[in-house]
Design brief:
two-stranded antiparallel ribbon, alpha+beta, single chain
Length: 102
C-alpha cells in the first residue's frame, strides 16, 4: 500500500516523488519509458530549478557531469535577439544548466 503514486518520472514527477518520500510518505514512482529515452528536450534548468537542486543536495551531481554553468542566455526571435542574465534567486543562484540526457 502506498500513500502516493506519482505517474511520470521526468522533470516534474521525479522531484515530486522525492519530496513526498522525504516527508515520510510511502511513494511509488512509475514511468512507462525506458531510460535514457529519446524525446526532444533541451533539459535546460533555470536558476529557480538550480536553487531547488542545491537545497535538495543534488546540484553537485550536475556540476560533476562537467556541464558548464550558463550565466547569459540569448533568445533569437527572428528580427531581433534578446540577451541577458536572470536576476538572482532569493538564495543567490544566478546560473542555469543545460545537462546532456546521458
Amino acid at each position: 500500500m502506498y500513500d502516493a503514486i506519482v505517474i511520470g518520472a521526468r522533470c516534474a514527477g521525479a522531484p515530486t516523488a522525492m519530496l513526498l518520500a522525504r516527508k515520510g510518505l510511502r511513494t511509488l514512482l512509475v514511468e512507462k519509458a525506458r531510460f535514457p529515452s529519446n524525446i526532444i528536450s533541451s533539459r535546460f534548468i533555470h536558476p529557480p530549478g538550480v536553487a531547488c537542486l542545491k537545497r535538495w543536495g543534488l546540484l553537485g551531481r550536475v556540476v560533476a557531469s562537467n556541464c558548464p554553468p550558463i550565466h547569459v542566455d540569448t533568445a533569437d526571435l527572428g528580427d531581433f535577439r534578446l540577451r541577458g542574465s536572470p536576476p538572482p534567486t532569493h538564495d543567490g543562484v544566478t546560473e542555469a544548466y543545460c545537462v546532456r540526457r546521458t
